[in-house]
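User: Hey, my collaborator sent me this sequence without any context and asked if I could get a structure. I don't really work with proteins. Can you help?
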Amino acid sequence: MIEAEFLIEAQGNDRDAVARSLRELEEKIKAEDGVRLRKAEYGDVVKEELFYSAVAEFQLEFANLQSYLNAAIRYGPSAIYVLSPERLTLTAEEFLLTLGEIIKLARKFYQSYHVGFEFEPEEEVSVGIEDYEIEELLKEGAIHVKLVAEVMAESEAEAVRILVGDIKDEAPVNKVKSTFNEESGAYLVAVDAFALDARALFSIALRHVPVLIEILEPKEITLSMLDLQDIALDIAGVFFEASQRLALS
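Assistant: No problem. I've predicted the 3D structure and written it out in structure-token form, which is a compact way to encode the shape of the chain:
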């Protein structure tokens, strides 16, 4: 179980509508599967230039990591404070199931609304990690993964430079293979890499929505309170920014 406080802001050009929207949000949260509302507190509606705004603080209990992240995506909190547990340990399989569900949501959202990330190829990328470097990465909590992503590019070499170049700071790449997928018109780029931490792996997954991902090491993944906060805020931020681009288009 995860216990956390979500701070959610409402804005609008009508004072009553802003206050009402937060009350309605409370009812939606109460109806969520795997979520229990423990407390709700509402700040005053204040006027900021041409708009009114107010912040509500919801203290929530989540049955598991998936329900916690789903709520972060759905309600886009401006701040999250995890109250417990101090550490959450999942098997690699449990972690991968949650990551896979987030990838599915991202893929469906991007495809439905024709949004996504754009990448520029690096001029040059380095692939390959020494054995002693791998040992150090694993000691420091890196996650050894294999993932395959579809990359739109003009050539196979460019596809590799796009994916490897984009993830290299979060996940040094040891090996890479690529092939052209005639059905999609994209290149399938497979990498053997070491994500520096769970947050990095979620970030990469959200940007590149891998068609395949496998965790090789470790057998268990432990998330701290800060990890839980940062991962949820990162995910919420990606979906919020995409939604804003849609609203302004």
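In plain terms: The chain has a mean pLDDT of 94. You can pass these tokens on to your collaborator as they are.
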